[in-house]
Amino acid sequence: MPDEIVRWIGEASPRTIVDGTYGGGGHTRLLRDILPAETDSNGLNPLIIGMDRDPAVIRRDDVPEGPGSDPRIELFLGSYEKAPAALAHCERTHADALVLDLGLSSDQLADRERGFSFTLPDAELDLRFDPESDLPAHQWLAFHGEKDIADAIYQFGEERFSRRIARQICLRAKERSPVKTVGDLVDICRRCVPRSKNHDIHPATRTFQALRIAVNDELGILQRTLASAADWIAPGGRIAAISFHSLEDRIVKNAFRDDDRWEILTKKPLRPTDEEVQSNPRSRSAKLRVAARKPD
Question: InterPro entries annotated for this entry (predicted)?
Answer without folding.
Answer: RsmH (IPR002903), SAM-dep_MeTrfase_MraW_recog (IPR023397), SAM-dependent_MTases_sf (IPR029063)
